[in-house]
Amino acid sequence: MSAIQDISGVTGSATTGAATKSATQESEDRFLKLLVTQMKNQDPLNPLDNAQVTSQMAQLSTVSGIEKLNTTLQAMSSSFMSSQSLQAAGMIGHSVLAPGSSLLLQNGAAAGGFELKQPVDHAIVTIKGAAGNTLHSMDLGAQQAGVVMFQWDGVTDSGANAANGAYAFKVSATQGGQSVAAERLALGKVGSVSLGSSGVTLNTDVLGSLDVTTVKQIF
């Protein structure tokens, strides 16, 4: 096997493996040393194949290029996450609407929402107590596709005022008598922002920790 063929095996493994920066440099150094040695000792009647030399150099160039591309992408990713974190920090103190089924009643006021993929001719929101009992139902009538907001003043169907705290709710939507899916959305206030390996996380009072990409609206 010739020196050039030996290098083919080295560069092939570097290309398919997760080569480090130092490993790439070592491959280049070995290639150049072998190439110079072979050129010095080549048979005049059987000189080196220019096409093969060019191919091997192109492989090394590809390995180096991939390594530089990976480094650039990592730098861009870090920069993007830092930028996203700074933008998310501006959400602290604001309320966000995201998937959830809880309502926080405070001083006779609570708000939530749901998202419809299509228009409906009937939408009913039912608020539940801790034991799963129905406290209040509100008929919102016909609604268009998109995000629908609703409010509750804390008054139950019996006329009593519910205590401050967290309550669950469900949504029933129909179109022409057929059930239509409605994604429940809870309203939470952002208290802080966390930056981890998975991205930016918003820490809220009602929704807990949630991915910033799940937010439907900001208030």
Tag the structure with descriptive keywords.
alpha+beta; 219 residues; 5-stranded antiparallel sheet; Immunoglobulin-like; 34% helix; disordered N terminus; 7-stranded antiparallel sheet
What's the SSE blueprint?
Elements: H1 3-16, H2 21-40, H3 50-89, E1 95-99, E2 102-105, E3 110-116, E4 122-128, E5 134-139, E6 146-152, E7 165-175, E8 178-180, E9 182-196, E10 199-204, E11 209-211, E12 217-218
Antiparallel strand pairs: 1-9, 1-12, 2-7, 3-6, 3-9, 4-5, 4-7, 7-8, 9-10, 10-11
Helix pairs in contact: 1-2, 1-3, 2-3
Description:
With 219 residues, the chain is α+β, with helices and mostly antiparallel strands. The protein has 2 domains: 3-77, no CATH class; 95-218, Sandwich (Immunoglobulin-like). It is 34% helix and 35% strand. It contains 3 helices and 12 strands, in the order H-H-H-E-E-E-E-E-E-E-E-E-E-E-E. The protein has helices at residues 3-16, 21-40, 50-89, and strands at residues 95-99, 102-105, 110-116, 122-128, 134-139, 146-152, 165-175, 178-180, 182-196, 199-204, 209-211, 217-218. The strands form 2 sheets. Strands 1, 3, 6, 9, 10, 11 and 12 form a 7-stranded antiparallel beta sheet that branches. Strands 2, 4, 5, 7 and 8 form a 5-stranded antiparallel beta sheet that branches. A hairpin with a 2-residue loop joins strand 7 and strand 8 (178-180). Helix 1 runs antiparallel to helix 2 (21-40). It is elongated, with a radius of gyration of 32 Å.
